[in-house]
Known about the structure:
Blueprint: E1 3-9, E2 13-20, E3 25-26, E4 31-34, H1 41-54, E5 61-65, E6 69-70, E7 73-74, H2 89-97, E8 101-105, H3 106-117, E9 126-132, E10 136-142, E11 145-147, H4 163-167, H5 169-175, H6 179-197, E12 201-205, H7 212-215, E13 224-227, H8 234-246
Parallel strand pairs: 1-5, 5-8, 9-12, 12-13
Antiparallel strand pairs: 1-2, 2-3, 2-4, 6-7, 9-10, 10-11
Helix pairs in contact: 1-2, 3-8
Amino acid sequence: MKTILGIDVGASGIKGALVDLQHGKLSGERFRVPTPQPATPAALAGAFAEVVEYFEYRGAVGCGFPAIVKNGVAHSAANIDKHWIGTSIEAVFGKVCGTRVFATNDADAAGIAEMRFGAGKGAAGLVFLITIGTGLGTALFYKGMLVPNTELGHLIWKNHKSAEVYCSSSARERLKISRRDWAVRFNEYLLHLERLFSPDLFILGGGESKFFDTYKDVLQPQARVVPAQLLNNAGIIGAAAYAAENDR
Length: 248
Ligand code: BGC
C-alpha cells in the first residue's frame, strides 16, 4: 500500500508526515509550522503549502481540518477565521500546492485512524473519539461506520456556553486550573454524552491524551475510557487514510 502525506490543520499548529497506511504509522519525522493568526484561507494555504513542499511530495494529500467539512467545503469556523465558512478547503489548498487535496473534519480523521489502527480496532458497538485541544472535537462510530461532523463539542452547556468552552484544553488554560480539576469538568461532559448515546467505548485523543494516566481515575462513565493509541498522530494518519480512500 502506498505512502500518503497526511496533514492535520489545528488551531495552533499545522502538522504533517508521510504515513505508511499498511501499518498505520508515520513513515518518517513530523514537520510542523505554527498556524498563522488570523487563520484566513490565504494565510493557511501558504502554511499548508510550506508543509507539502518540505516533504517534496506530489501525490494526493489528506487534510484534517477543524471545522464541519462537507464535500471538501468548510461549514463552520469555531477556532479559525470566519472567512472559511463556505470555502472549499480542497480547492484553496489544492491550488496553492498544485496537487489533489482531500479534506475531512480533524476529529473524524483522528477517529478513522484509531478505529482502523489504534484503540478502536475491532470495536463493534458505539464508539466515541473525543479530541481534546484548543477545540473539543468528536467522532462517532457505530459498528465501525463513521457518522461524520457530529460536533458534540458544541453541545449547549452550563450558562448557555458550549461544552468546548467548559472543558477543552484551552478552557483549562484560560481558567488556570489543574489537570485534575479540569478532569472533574470533563467527566461531567462524558457522563452527559453517556446519558445521551450509551456508547461502549470512549477514546480520548488530542493533546490531553498524553496525560491520561494523571486523571483517568477521575473519569466515571460505565463505558470503557481509553487514551488514543496513536496519540497526537491520529489526525495525520487518519487524514492520509481519508485521502487514500477518496483518491480514486
Ligand atoms: C470544531 C470542530 C473540531 C474541533 C477540534 C471544534 O471547535 O467545531 O470541527 O473538530 O474543534 O478541532
